[in-house]
Specification:
Distance between the termini: 30 Å
Number of domains: 1
Helix content: 25-40%
Largest sheet: 3 strands, mixed
Number of helices: 3
Bound molecules: zinc ion
Length: about 120
Amino acid sequence: MHELGIVTHVMKTLTDVAAENELTRIGSVTLEVGEVSGVIHEQILDCWDYMCTKRGPLFTGCKLILDTIPAVTYCSSCEKTYPTVQYGRTCPHCGSGETWLLEGNQCTIKEIEAE
Ligand SMILES: [Zn+2]
């Protein structure tokens, strides 16, 4: 499951950060989730809550905040950008299919709030 992998990865990173900074509790973590990253918000939140109960005191009551990043596609024919979700792979400016995703595919830790 995609979401479980992300949660496991985020928790591992947080555990390392906590160890380095001698944190005993993490209040919340903000993830930047791209619109076309394929992450299902409900699933990752469920997964997070479940894993928090398994991972001990560091994660007790730790909140996961999801920050959606809009997906943007770049057209190499007319050198313009456009919203990916609305138009897909075809450029709405010139009709070209010579396009690629600029951003919106990520799932990265943006902010960690310690208690
Ligand atoms: Zn174009």
